[in-house]
Design brief:
By secondary structure, the protein is of the alpha/beta class. The chain folds into three domains: 125 residues, HUPs (Rossmann fold, 3-Layer(aba) Sandwich); 186 residues, Serine Threonine Protein Phosphatase 5, Tetratricopeptide repeat; 169 residues, DNA Cyclobutane Dipyrimidine Photolyase, subunit A, domain 3 (Orthogonal Bundle). Helix content is 48%, strand content 6%. It is built from 21 helices and nine strands. The strands form three sheets. A five-stranded parallel β-sheet has the order 4-2-1-5-6, with helices on both faces. Strands 3-9 form a two-stranded parallel sheet. It has a two-stranded antiparallel sheet with strand order 7-8. α6 packs across α11. The chain is globular, with a radius of gyration of 24 Å. The relative contact order is 0.10.
């Protein structure tokens, strides 16, 4: 009789998958905690714990439903800490005659499993879809066939039509596709956002395991109050909380930053989504349904801004990944080579915005998209940090960072290392934008208004230095003309002073 082994990866915790809709005693599922996955980059301790807790919860849920599950903990004697070796061990020990896996979302795992099935086993094998995303791997590549630039907005509109979301026939509700212009408000000085919903799971066993096995991690953790959702039930609770307490102002303040609060109006469901405990379609359907029943208090701008993040950016970034990998991981348009300053690992810097964004990331394994893009990412791009260094940092420090979504945002959106596949221009700014969208600058050691001098904000001189040194590559970009026109109008003495200030800061970058 046929005996099937089915693999579940740590980011494939989808209990709604068709695999689990009926119990079959001839099918066994396997889930592994492995050094292969803890060690390919130095992860935040909360990220490791979140995955292990969620994997264990998922395993227990499937066992309770009657499915046969083999689970390897990190310190199990028979755990060989390597995916192919663990699979071979099980196939040989239990005499499985067929192997199945869901298509991985990371290129390295995709290659590893293809090689395993083709060269390392003699039994039959099959791959199936993960049944999570709203688009297939290569849909975006086909959609933009023949185009050099992949414009997210056109892909997003197509997704809206395809799934009939916020649509009135073939037109957008209210006749407007995008409310991004309405969603760029600074949080008022005395405004207090909702107290975030935090979970209080005990994770002491896993934390001790990670320490015992000497897994290298970054960041901190509260062992008795693990705040992140680690089951489908908790993930849905967090989604409900977002709808009831945060959606009302999500769009307005989605780009706002303040040192007083870390969660603001963000949903914080990205880990739940990226581990597949919940699906993007059910998320946007739930949010749209809630908005429709509360449209007297929640505007469409709040809802559309959220929907765009999920079915626009998220699906789009995944499509970019499968269209452009593995070459995408090597792109370095500006040829940046500078090492990542030490304060990216400690938060010990005099720059208030960087200090807060980094320390928050170390404390919570989380920062929202503008903190990542316009604070840490902006600084790294202006300072000429190697995209390799930054990739590793982003991939390790954030709880939701899996390569398919991290590298496309880092190399593309944040660092323009792809030369314009994802973004039409580099996302850089001086202190002006940071002050416009945050409360960081008021109590900073540096002066947001000064371009030169001992306490001049580093973002100001580095901003002009970036454009000056990359003139040849950027000057003809139609979206950057204003910056070069302003630079050209400055008198030569002022320009020279700014460039000297930038050089001084870059030469002493560890002490900023």
């Amino acid at each position: 009789m046929s005996k099937t082994l089915r693999l579940i990866l740590g980011d494939q915790l989808n209990s709604q998958h068709s695999w689990f809709q009926k119990v079959d005693k001839n099918i066994t599922y396997c889930i592994f905690e492995m050094r292969q996955e803890t060690d390919y980059v130095r992860h935040h301790i909360q990220k490791v714990v979140a995955f292990f807790m969620s994997m264990r919860n998922f395993s227990n849920e499937q066992k309770s439903a009657g499915h046969q599950v083999i689970y390897f903990k990190l310190d199990d004697d028979h755990n060989q800490q390597n995916l192919p070796k663990n699979l071979l061990f099980l196939i040989e020990k239990y005499g499985f005659t067929h192997f199945e896996y869901q298509l991985p979302d990371e290129h390295r795992l995709d290659l590893q499993l293809k090689k395993f099935c083709k060269k390392e086993i003699t039994i039959t094998s099959q791959s199936v879809d993960s049944e999570h995303f709203m688009s297939q791997r290569h849909d975006l590549e086909k959609f933009f066939e023949g185009k050099k630039t992949y414009l997210m907005e056109s892909f997003y509109r197509n997704m809206r039509k395809q799934y009939n979301l916020l649509m009135d026939g073939d037109k957008p509700l209210t006749g407007k596709w995008n409310y991004d212009h309405d969603n760029r408000k600074k949080m008022p000085k005395d405004h207090v956002p909702p107290v975030p919903l935090l979970f209080e799971s005990t994770c002491q066993e896993i934390v001790e395991l990670v320490k015992q096995e000497k897994v290298k991690t970054i960041g901190s953790i509260q062992e008795k109050e693990f705040i992140w959702p680690t089951s489908r039930k908790e993930s849905l609770e967090l989604l409900d909380f977002f709808c009831e307490h945060c959606l009302v102002r999500f769009g307005s303040f989605q780009d706002a930053m303040t040192p007083q609060f870390w969660s603001l109006y963000h949903s914080r469901i990205s880990f739940s989504l990226n581990s597949k405990m919940i699906s993007p379609l059910e998320v946007v359907q739930k949010v749209i349904a809630y908005w429709k029943s509360h449209s007297d208090e929640i505007t469409i701008a709040q809802t559309e801004g959220f929907v765009r993040q999920i079915i626009g950016w998220r699906e789009y970034m995944r499509g970019i990944y499968w269209a452009k990998m593995p070459e995408f991981a090597e792109l370095n348009f500006f040829e940046h080579q500078r090492k990542l300053p030490e304060y990216f690992w400690t938060g010990e810097t005099k720059m208030a915005c960087m200090k807060h964004a980094i320390k928050q990331s170390l404390e919570y394994a989380y920062a929202h998209h503008i903190q990542r893009l316009m604070i840490t990412g902006n600084f790294a791009l202006l300072a000429g940090i190697s995209p390799d260094e930054l990739d590793e940092w982003y991939l390790g420090i954030y709880i939701d960072a899996i390569e398919w979504v991290e590298i496309t945002n880092t190399r593309g959106m944040s660092q323009f290392a792809d030369g314009g596949i994802v973004g039409t221009k580099p996302y850089v700014s001086s202190a002006n934008y940071i002050d416009k969208m945050s409360h960081y600058c008021k109590n900073c050691y540096y002066n947001k208004k000064e371009k030169t001098g001992d306490r001049a904000c580093p973002f100001n001189s580095l901003y002009w230095d970036f454009y000056d040194r990359n003139r040849e590559k950027l000057e003809k970009n139609p979206r950057i003309g204003m910056a070069y026109r302003l630079w050209n109008k400055m008198d030569s003495d002022k320009k020279e002073a700014i460039l000297l200030q930038a050089k001084k800061y870059l030469d002493d970058i560890e002490n900023l």
